[in-house]
Write a structure and sequence with these properties.
This protein is of the alpha+beta class. The protein folds into four domains: 8-178, 2-Layer Sandwich (Nucleotidyltransferase, domain 5), CATH 3.30.420; 204-299, Taq DNA Polymerase, Chain T, domain 4 (Up-down Bundle); 342-349 and 491-569, Alpha-Beta Plaits (2-Layer Sandwich), CATH 3.30.70.370; 353-487, 5' to 3' exonuclease, C-terminal subdomain (DNA polymerase, domain 1), CATH 1.10.150.20. Helices cover 50% and strands 14% of the residues. The chain is built from 22 helices and 17 strands. The chain has a six-stranded mixed sheet. The protein has a four-stranded antiparallel sheet with strand order 15-16-12-17. A three-stranded antiparallel sheet has the order 8-7-11. The longest helix has 30 residues, at 479-508.
C-alpha cells in the first residue's frame, strides 16, 4: 500500500474543482453514494484524478449540493470510470444530463472484454494487473454521516489513484479502443441509462383490477383442491401423495423425494397436476403484478434496472422489477402503455437466432433458404413429414418452432418434447421428437458439424472458448452453454448496436423518441404521436443497419408496428 500522506485534497467549492481539472483532457472519476439507487439515494463525494497532478481531488457534495456548474469541470473531456453505468446514472440523474454525452472509458468493461473468465471488481483487477492489494474495508461505510473520517477519504482517493494506474496498464496490454465488443458496450451505457431514467408507463388502474382478478382465481383454484382432494397445493409433499393415491407413478429427485416439478406435472393427464400448474402460474402472475405496482413512481412509470453484461453471453437482463420476462398473456402486455399524446413502437428481428446460426456455422441449406425467403419452420416440417413445402399449413408450421429453436442448442428428444409443451403448448410423441432430431441433423449439416465439433472439444478439454460474430469471448464448460453463448451473444451484440444507432439518429434528426424496453430481439419505443412516422423510419433503418453489420448477405427484414400499448405493437 502506498503512503497516504498528501494523496488527496477535499474541497467544498466547485471553482476549485474546475481549476483542478482544466489542464487535462482525460480525468479519472469515481463517486461515493448513500445507496445504490440514483433516484432515491444521493452522491456524497465526487473523486477526480487529473493525471498531471500528484493528488486526487475530492468534492464533498453535502456542502456544495447539486451545483449545475460541477459539469463545467468535466465538459469536453474524456472520463475514465470503473463501472461507468453506476457513476453516470447518478451524475446524469442528480447533476446534469449532459454527462451522458461525454466520451468515456470503462476499466471494468475492458476486463470483461479481454478477461471473461476472471473477476472484474476494481480490487480484483488492481490485484491482477498491478499486484497491489486494495483496502476496501470502507466500501460499506456510512457515507451519509455529517462528517466523514480520514479512513473514508483515503479510501475514496485511492479508488481514483489506482483507477488511473489500472487504465494506463490496460492501455499497454490491450488494444481495446479498436475492439468492437468493447466499443458496443461502452457506447451502449448512456443509451441504457436513458432507458432506465425514462421508464415505461403502466396503466395503474388496470394493474390493480388485473391483480384482484388473479388473486380471486388463485383462491378459487386453491379452495377447490383443498375441498376435493384435502391437499395444500403449495406443498410438494401433499401434491405427490395425492397423485400417488390416484395411481400415478412419480419419479424421484436426487434426494429421494417424489418430484412434482412442472417438467413432471405437465405430462400427467390428471386434474390435480393441471390445477397445481395453474396455481403456480397464478402465483407468479401475482408476484409480477405486485412488483409492477410497487415499483411505479408518481407518474406511474417503472424504472427497471437493466444489466448489459450480467450474463456470460452478454444477453441483457432486467430486475427490480423484471420487465423483460413478461408473460405473453394479453392482459399483461396491455398494462404497458404510453403517455397521453404519445404512442409506442414495437419492432423485432424475425427468427434472428436462426439467421445468426446460419452465418455462424456457414450452414449452406439454411443460408440458401433465408436468401430465398423460405420459411425455416415450414421447411423442417416439410422435410420431416414428406409433405410438400407449399402445403404445410399454419397449424403444422407451429411444430417447426420448437424443433428449430430447440435443436439448435443441442436438445435431446425428451427435452425437446418438454420444451414444445411448455413454451409452445405443442404435444409431441417421443417417436416424433426422435424423427425431427434425425431430420434436423441431416438437413442442417453445417449446424450438425458445429455441434459435433463443440462436444468433442468439451469432452477432450473440459471447456471451450466461444466467440460471437462481434468477437465477444466466453468460456463454456457445458455443451448447451457452448452452443448458446455465441448465438444468443451475437443477438445481444446486434440489438445493442441497433439501440446505439437509433439513439444517435434520434438526436441527429431531432426526433423526440425514447426506447423504453428491450426484450432480447425486440425494441419498444415511446414517441410523440406527431413524430411517430419519423421514429418508425429511424427505428427500422437502425435495426437493419445493425443486422447488416453482422449478417451481411442474409436478409433480415424489420417490421415496426405502432400502437397505444405493448400488446398492440406485437407483430
Amino acid at each position: 500500500m502506498e503512503t497516504t500522506k498528501n494523496i488527496y485534497s477535499i474541497k467544498s467549492n466547485t471553482k476549485d474543482l474546475i481549476k483542478y481539472t482544466k489542464d487535462s483532457k482525460i480525468l479519472y472519476v469515481d463517486i461515493e453514494t448513500t445507496g445504490l439507487s440514483p433516484y432515491e439515494d444521493y452522491i456524497r463525494l465526487i473523486q477526480v484524478k487529473n493525471p498531471k497532478k500528484e493528488y486526487a481531488f475530492i468534492l464533498d457534495l453535502y456542502k456544495v449540493s447539486y451545483d449545475k456548474k460541477i459539469f463545467d469541470a468535466f465538459k469536453d473531456k474524456k472520463l475514465v470510470f470503473h463501472n461507468a453505468k453506476f457513476d453516470l446514472s447518478f451524475l446524469s440523474q442528480k447533476i446534469d444530463k449532459r454527462f451522458l454525452d461525454l466520451e468515456i472509458e470503462d476499466t471494468m468493461l475492458i476486463g470483461k472484454t479481454f478477461e471473461p473468465s476472471k473477476k472484474h471488481s476494481l480490487k480484483e483487477m488492481v490485484k491482477n494487473h498491478l499486484d497491489i492489494e486494495m483496502d476496501k474495508s470502507q466500501q460499506k461505510a456510512d457515507w451519509s454521516q455529517e462528517k466523514l473520517n480520514k479512513k473514508q477519504l483515503i479510501y475514496a482517493a485511492f479508488d481514483v489513484i489506482y483507477l488511473q494506474k489500472l487504465f494506463e496498464k490496460l492501455k499497454e496490454t490491450y488494444n481495446f479502443e479498436k475492439n468492437l465488443v468493447y466499443k458496443i458496450e461502452k457506447n451502449f451505457i448512456p443509451v441504457l441509462i436513458k432507458i432506465e431514467q425514462k421508464g415505461i408507463k403502466i396503466d395503474f388502474d388496470k394493474a390493480i383490477e388485473f391483480l384482484d382478478d388473479v388473486r380471486k382465481e388463485y383462491e378459487e383454484t386453491e379452495n377447490y383442491l383443498i375441498k376435493k382432494y384435502r391437499i395444500n397445493p403449495r406443498s410438494p409433499h401433499d401434491v405427490a401423495n395425492a397423485l400417488i393415491k390416484e395411481g400415478i407413478k412419480l419419479p424421484r429427485t436426487k434426494k429421494g423425494n417424489y418430484s412434482t416439478s412442472e417438467d413432471v406435472l405437465k405430462f400427467i393427464d390428471h386434474e390435480i397436476a393441471k390445477k397445481v400448474i395453474k396455481i403456480r402460474k397464478l402465483k407468479n402472475s401475482i408476484d409480477l403484478l405486485e412488483s409492477y405496482i410497487k415499483s411505479c413512481d408518481e407518474n406511474f412509470r417503472i424504472h427497471s434496472t437493466f444489466n448489459s453484461w450480467k450474463t456470460v453471453s452478454g444477453r441483457m437482463s432486467s430486475e427490480n422489477p423484471n420487465i423483460q420476462n413478461v408473460p405473453t398473456n394479453k392482459r399483461f402486455r396491455q398494462l404497458f402503455t404510453a403517455d397521453e399524446g404519445n404512442v409506442l413502437l414495437g419492432a423485432d428481428y424475425p427468427q434472428i437466432e436462426l439467421r445468426i446460426a446460419a452465418v455462424y456455422t456457414n450452414d449452406k441449406t439454411m443460408i440458401d433458404a433465408l436468401k430465398n425467403n423460405i420459411d425455416l419452420h415450414k421447411l423442417i416440417v416439410s422435410k420431416a413429414t414428406g409433405k410438400p413445402y407449399k402445403e404445410i399449413n399454419k397449424e403444422e408450421r407451429k411444430l417447426g418452432k420448437p424443433v428449430n429453436f430447440g435443436l439448435l442448442y443441442g436438445m435431446s428428444a425428451n427435452t425437446l418434447r418438454g420444451y414444445a409443451k411448455t413454451i409452445y403448448g405443442i404435444s409431441m410423441s417421443k417417436e416424433d421428437a426422435l424423427k425431427f432430431k434425425k431430420i434436423y441433423k441431416e438437413t442442417y449439416k453445417g449446424i450438425n458439424e458445429w455441434q459435433d465439433k463443440t462436444i468433442r472439444k468439451i469432452k477432450k478439454n473440459g471447456f471451450i472458448e466461444t466467440s460471437t460474430l462481434a468477437g465477444r469471448k466466453a468460456v463454456a464448460k457445458r455443451y448447451t452453454d457452448a452452443l448458446n453463448y455465441p448465438i444468443q451473444g451475437t443477438g445481444a451484440d446486434l440489438i445493442k448496436l441497433a439501440c446505439i444507432y437509433f439513439d444517435y439518429n434520434c438526436k441527429k434528426h431531432k426526433v423526440n423518441a425514447q426506447i423504453v424496453n428491450i426484450i432480447h430481439d425486440e425494441i419498444i419505443v415511446e414517441v410523440e404521436e406527431n413524430q411517430k412516422d419519423a421514429a418508425k423510419d429511424l427505428l427500422k433503418k437502425s435495426m437493419e443497419k445493425a443486422a447488416k453489420r453482422f449478417l451481411k448477405d442474409i436478409p433480415c427484414p424489420v417490421d415496426v408496428v405502432i400502437g397505444k400499448n405493448w400488446e398492440e405493437v406485437k407483430d
